[in-house]
Amino acid sequence: MTSSPKPADATAPEKNDFIRQIIREDLASGKHAAVRTRFPPEPNGYLHIGHAKSICLNFGIGREFGGPVNLRFDDTNPAREDPEYVEAIKEDVRWLGFEWAELRHASDYFEVFYRSALKLVQDGKAYVCDLDAEQVRAYRGTLTEPGRNSPFRDRSVAENLDLFTRMRAGEFPDGARTLRAKIDMASGNINLRDPAIYRIKHVEHQNTGNAWPIYPMYDYAHCLSDALEGITHSLCTLEFEDHRPLYDWFVDHVDLPRNPDLYQPLLDAGLDAPVAKPRQIEFSRLNINYTVMSKRKLLALVGEGLVSGWDDPRMPTLQGLRRRGCPPAALRLLADRVGISKQNSLIDFSVLEGCIRETLDAAAPRRMGVVDPLKLVITNLDEGHAETIRFSNHPKDPSFGEREVPFSPVLWIEREDFMEVPPKGFHRLVPGGEVRLRGVGIVRCTDVVKEGDAVVAVHCTLDPDSRAGLPGADRKVKGTIHWVAAATAVPAELRLYDRLFTVPDPDQDEGGKTYRDYMNPDSVRVVRGYVEPSAAALQPEQALQFERLGFFVADRHDHRADRPVFNRAVTLRDNWAGKAGG
Ligand code: ATP
Ligand code: MG
User: Fold this and answer.
1) Shared domain check, 526 and 546
2) 474 and 500 share one domain
3) 93 CA → ligand 1 middle, Å
4) Shared domain check, 424 and 337
5) Cα angle at 427 between 422 and 428, to 5 degrees?
6) Shortest-distance ligand to the CA of residue 57
7) pLDDT tens for residues 109-141?
8) In whole angstroms, what is the distance from residue 131 CA to residue 139 CA?
9) Which of 186, 284, 313, 493 sits most deeply, having the most CB atoms within 10 A of its CB?
10) Is residue 263 part of a domain?
């Protein structure tokens, strides 16, 4: 049965988009006693954030209406598919917080599809056509002109049966023949102009090996797979709207519920076949600016070495987002926020960043780290002075507890928190000025140590009366800065990520330019900094906020306590708001 994440949204209002309305009506009218949905990825690439929308919709409906949700690999195109993708997709769905009722493959049904096709042939509803791909195109007509019948359309049932069984036996070379549905070459909907059902492809399949020299087309396999799994509501994106009449044509003409002999091989193999008449419903895709989303483009980014791989933290893949430190709850929040409709829209990247920020603000413990270290020496403490200071791990949630942060007179502070010649309105440390060291007290800068023009250290005195717990602790100074004690600081690699592209629509392909011309040169900056020991000790994939720097995650592959690596998922504020084109 479906199990689901501990929903952060358990108290959220009931969702009521048009798909859920249809489901409620179908349940209320008794059309269906229960709902079943599925998520049907093609294992030809890694899942991306658009797929997350579909996963959250299908599995979300399963959870809300108590129906099973299948994960079905739509593996009808063996040339582009790979077991590597199959494993990654399973991992991604689970990471998003969902569990499928049953794992299926379109290829589990190859025998049923074949028997169903034989039935269509016997019923005079399908024929073997010898036109090649180019001829098929020429006969198909256009949006304004009807197509012409194939010269092979009127083959006898006996001849079609003979040729189709020989196709299946592997007698003919790739592309020599197709099996086509006999529908209507004059239809206003081009999808209904005798679409192909089977093509010949002598290609090894990742699930069925060399058992099949013919493979079913998507439009034929998808609807029958839905029917065989008892899927009641087959949810897909809008580009399939024009395919719906074909979906219904196959469902009606094969009529699996009335032909159990067609799916007997499934039952023999011990597979449950709760056949039903499914209904396809389309919703709009999720599109996000400042990124590219189709698997083809993502594959190109990886292939051309423009990113480090499918899980590069700048990629909109689920593996990339995960590595970046985007928690699954942020993607579920995004899916809720974007909602379900038939209107195509472009979501601003900042909406995703906002979801990450909001989720991590509640979920991430606080730590201190410095990305661009400048030495600060407190001269009025003993050189050997060492103490620990208690910090709460979360400003708003005491359940995160407290930790001990080591403090001693030599500290690392952020270079940008000191300015020798400050501009107006600079409220941090300046020569002769004061600033609060977070959790410690107020320091005054007495000396600036330079090598040539470069500032290498600042010397300060700590006001002893300003220390926590003392009456002077509340004394007002304008700025508060973070720090890490040099004696105990752990050197860390900090990977600072930003958007992969500099323009909202890198896909525009205008004036001879392509997405390659819009790569953001600052999309990753790797720096060496310092972090407090309790940050280094976090487990890989643990999220945290480095105070004032942003939300980070301990890299799931490279982080080790003695060699920490943190990725910045998102800054604390939206740095892109108001930027040109932003
Ligand atoms: P792409 O075009 O990016 O390669 P796809 O549609 O070919 O993606 P599939 O593996 O066929 O990828 O998709 C599995 C499911 O996810 C389908 O039901 C599809 O409609 C849905 N899906 C894919 N992209 C999006 C998106 N951007 N928004 C919402 N749903 C999506
Ligand atoms: Mg697809």
Assistant:
1) yes
2) no
3) 14
4) no
5) 80
6) 1
7) 999 999 999 999 999 999 999 999 999 999 999
8) 9
9) 313
10) no
Is residue 501 domain-shared with residue 425, that is, in the same domain?
A: no
The tens digit of pLDDT for each residue in 90-114 reads 999 999 999 999 999 999 999 999 9
**Does residue 472 sit in helix, strand or coil?**
helix
Tell me, using a 6 A CB cutoff, whether residue 129 lines ligand 1: no
Let me know whether 362 and 373 are in one domain.
Answer: no
Ligand 1 atom 16: residue of nearest CA: 51
Q: What is the pLDDT of residue 10?
A: 55
Q: CA 32 to CA 38: how far, in whole Å? A: 16
Q: Would you say residue 440 lies in a domain?
A: yes
Show the CA angle centred on residue 161, arms to residues 160 and 163, nearest 5°.
Answer: 65
Does 537 share its domain with 475? no
Q: How far is the CA of 41 from the centre of ligand 2 (A)?
A: 7
SS3 letters across 57-108 = HHHHHHHHHCCCEEEEECCCCHHHCCHHHHHHHHHHHHHCCCECCCEEEHHH
Which residues have CB under 8 Å from 437's CB, separation 6+?
Answer: 411, 413, 443, 462, 480, 481, 483
* Same domain as 309, residue 404: no
User: Angle formed by the axes of helices 83-95 and 49-65, to 10°?
Assistant: 60
pLDDT of 455 reads 97
Q: What atom in ligand 1 is closest to the CA of residue 44?
A: 10
pTM of the predicted structure, to 2 decimals: 0.94
To the query of whether residue 42 is one of the catalytic residues in this protein, the response is yes
Q: Which residues contact 370 (CB under 8 A, 6 or more apart)?
A: 412, 413, 414, 482, 483, 484, 489, 529, 530, 531
Distance 74 CA to ligand 2 centre (A): 8
The total of structural domains in the chain comes to 2
Domain assignment of residue 342, yes or no: yes
> Which structural domain range is residue 397 located in?
369-482
The CATH number for 328's domain is 2.40.240.10
